[in-house]
Amino acid sequence: KVKVSPRTSPANQIKQGDRKREKGGWNIKKESSSHLNLKTCPAANSCKNKPIKLISYENNMYHPQPVRKFSALEAQKVMRSVLEEKLKHVRYDEKAGARLTVDLAESVKDAVRALGYERYKLVCYVVLGAVRRSEISCCSRSVWSPVSDTYAEYCFKNDSLFALCIVFAVYYE
């Protein structure tokens, strides 16, 4: 449904030099959250009485802070359940390890995304290795906002393998 209403209210009649709103313009509103304004062209004779389409999207607004901040604790619980479910009885295999890490990363990312945090980009990093008397060092670097961006981590270990999983949550402003 489309509702058409003329702009006759004195509150909507903005000064004459304002090119975005003018007297006698038409406002076409859709029932969705975005709306479309059609107004006459204010320029000289070249475009006299030709409509200009001005589109404003109310949903696509700049939000410097998240409405619901990403909870690392909540994400860690989800990561733990996914890794324990998928790796509980798995033995380390060098050949199957590459495919397993990709599957784990996708499963964890989908499960964390299902928590419903809006406007967050999720990056999932999984390291899979054999349990031996050796050490591993991992490092990651990025530029982010300490106010809205964060990460969650969980390390799973059984008799033959370990899996380190880190989910980075970066907020889109």
Automatic annotation (TrEMBL):
Q: Name one GO molecular function term.
A: dynein intermediate chain binding
Region feature (Disordered): 1-28
Q: Tell me the protein family, please.
A: Belongs to the dynein light chain Tctex-type family.
Q: Name one GO biological process term.
A: microtubule-based movement
Q: What name appears for this protein in its UniProt entry?
A: Tctex1 domain containing 1
Instruction: Name the domain of life.
Output: Eukaryota
Regions of compositional bias (Basic and acidic residues) in chain numbering: 16-28
GO cellular component terms, alphabetically, are: cytoplasm; cytoplasmic dynein complex
Q: Where does the record place Polar residues bias?
A: 1-15
A Pfam family the protein falls into:
Tctex-1
UniProt cross-references to InterPro entries, sorted A to Z: Tctex-1-like (IPR005334), Tctex-1-like_sf (IPR038586)
